[in-house]
């Protein structure tokens, strides 16, 4: 009777007072919990407006999933942890298909471990059932009812669960990608996608098609195609060169070889020049090959050489475009949630923040009035170091810092060549005269050492700072990418082992993380 009256109350007032639904469902959930009817309690409690996932998880464990044998679904996981937040853009564009994969993977996990994912994760983190007091009808002063529940409300306690479920969701996306012969998360940009966008940017006056379907190919397609030039590029992932278990092993490899041979033969017969790009391709080599093929055809192709970027650097810049303004490192707390920065806490004062902002304004003003390339690169380096020091203090990594660092790295070759062409190292203000004099002195002694001097004093700093920043944010693969780019430019790096040693240390960190993940899954 009371249930019916409360539901009628919700219907009457929910449009004028949206919070009514929240309160009614909460009261009904508490009432049924007091009566020991957990199914009905969860039916209403789950309809409340939850402020955070931890409270939702606590209620789900106490009411909706009271046993390790309870079957989980993608929808129940989504209601608590928000699947979309743990997927890439590709995953969200294929959300329903990913959910089907999650359902299948949840069932597989349950069969393998004899319990559902949540209870397995609880056991891994030594979170056990106990007797905790739960106050019912909170907010109603004249009602003081208490019941015993098995799990407490503790966001800190459940953070490892949140992290492991997030990893599980991403693993499901990878499973879906592998089943559909697509690159895994993190591998996708260094593939036909990034190559396609690079071709569009390099050859803006030419039509460039992605996944072009030509009549003579039947059901097959060309990864990248220039119609007017009758030229195609295929990105050959590792599954085209050797058997890869996640792509179907030996059987799939042989089928790939047959399809590749058929495609090549059909292209030759129909006058289409087919080129190949492989993982780790050198973009300049691909462009040179395109130019050679077009020359042989007696045609011309216009190229924007300013777009000749390393594929790995291109990936970092594309990811940065989609980043939020601020990113904060995890501080090794095992959480996917941003930690409070020292700026929010007690690390640096408002006065220091004002000083930093004024300093940035002054350097940007000098940068805008730079008259020589040496002035400009010096001010850029000084600006980058100022950002880095502030980011390190506050533990808050700004998008501006990352953009500037990647810009300096990307312009390394052209900046270096411009400095080398200067007859005199002229400056427009006194602040860097000592550095210029040092250049003159050392270059006079050893002209061949000019590159080393420039790298140590100016251009190499951007690589060092970006590698450090990515390492500090625990983005180890990005730090390796920056280090490899530095080595490709002949920049050895500071300290005894330089960038080579940094790569080895980073690889050890990655292996350690993987071992930890494997042991958690085991």
TrEMBL record:
It comes from the Bacteria. Residues 329-339 have a biased composition (Polar residues). Residues 322-345 are annotated as: Disordered. This is DUF2726 domain-containing protein. It comes from Bacillus thuringiensis.
């Amino acid at each position: 009777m009371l249930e019916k009256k409360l539901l009628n109350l919700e219907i009457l007032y929910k449009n004028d007072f949206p919070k009514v639904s929240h309160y009614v469902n909460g009261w009904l959930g508490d009432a049924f919990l007091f009566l020991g009817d957990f199914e009905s309690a969860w039916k209403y409690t789950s309809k409340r407006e939850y402020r955070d996932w931890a409270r939702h998880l606590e209620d789900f464990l106490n009411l909706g999933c009271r046993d390790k044998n309870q079957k989980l679904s993608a929808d129940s996981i989504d209601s608590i942890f928000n699947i979309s937040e743990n997927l890439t853009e590709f995953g969200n564009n294929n959300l329903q298909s990913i959910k089907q994969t999650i359902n299948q993977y949840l069932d597989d996990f349950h069969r393998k471990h004899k319990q559902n994912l949540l209870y397995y994760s609880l056991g891994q983190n030594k979170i056990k059932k106990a007797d905790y007091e739960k106050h019912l009808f909170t907010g109603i002063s004249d009602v003081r009812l208490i019941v015993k529940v098995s799990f407490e409300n503790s966001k800190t306690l459940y953070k490892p669960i949140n992290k492991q479920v997030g990893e599980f969701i991403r693993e499901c996306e990878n499973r879906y990608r592998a089943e559909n012969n697509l690159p895994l998360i993190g591998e996708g940009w260094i593939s036909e996608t990034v190559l396609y966008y690079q071709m569009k940017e390099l050859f803006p006056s030419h039509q460039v098609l992605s996944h072009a379907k030509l009549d003579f190919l039947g059901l097959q397609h060309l990864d990248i195609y220039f119609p007017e030039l009758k030229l195609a590029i295929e990105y050959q992932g590792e599954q085209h060169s050797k058997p890869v278990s996640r792509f179907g092993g030996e059987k799939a490899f042989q089928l790939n070889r047959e399809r590749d041979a058929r495609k090549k033969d059909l292209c030759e017969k129909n006058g289409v020049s087919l080129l190949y790009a492989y993982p780790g391709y050198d973009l300049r080599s691909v462009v040179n090959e395109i130019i050679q093929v077009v020359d042989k055809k007696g045609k011309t192709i216009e190229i924007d050489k300013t777009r000749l970027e390393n594929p790995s650097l291109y990936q970092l810049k594309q990811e940065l475009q989609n980043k939020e303004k601020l990113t904060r490192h995890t501080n090794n707390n095992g959480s996917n949630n941003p930690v409070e920065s020292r700026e929010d806490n007690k690390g640096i004062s408002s006065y220091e923040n004002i000083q930093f902002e004024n300093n940035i304004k002054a350097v940007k003003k000098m940068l805008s009035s730079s008259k020589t390339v040496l002035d400009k690169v010096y001010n850029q380096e000084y600006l980058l170091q100022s950002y880095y020091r502030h980011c390190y203090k506050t533990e808050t990594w700004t998008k501006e810092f990352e953009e500037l660092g990647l810009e300096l790295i990307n312009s390394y070759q052209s900046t270096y060549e411009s400095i080398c062409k200067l007859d005199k190292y002229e400056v427009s203000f006194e602040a860097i005269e000592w550095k210029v004099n040092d250049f003159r002195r050392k270059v006079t002694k050893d002209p061949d050492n000019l590159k080393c001097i420039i790298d140590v004093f100016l251009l190499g700093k951007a690589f060092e700072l970006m590698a450090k920043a990515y390492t500090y944010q625990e983005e180890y693969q990005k730090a390796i990418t920056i280090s490899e780019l530095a080595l490709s430019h002949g920049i050895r790096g500071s300290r005894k082992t330089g960038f080579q040693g940094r790569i080895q240390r980073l690889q050890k960190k990655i292996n350690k993380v993987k071992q930890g993940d494997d042991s958690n899954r085991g």
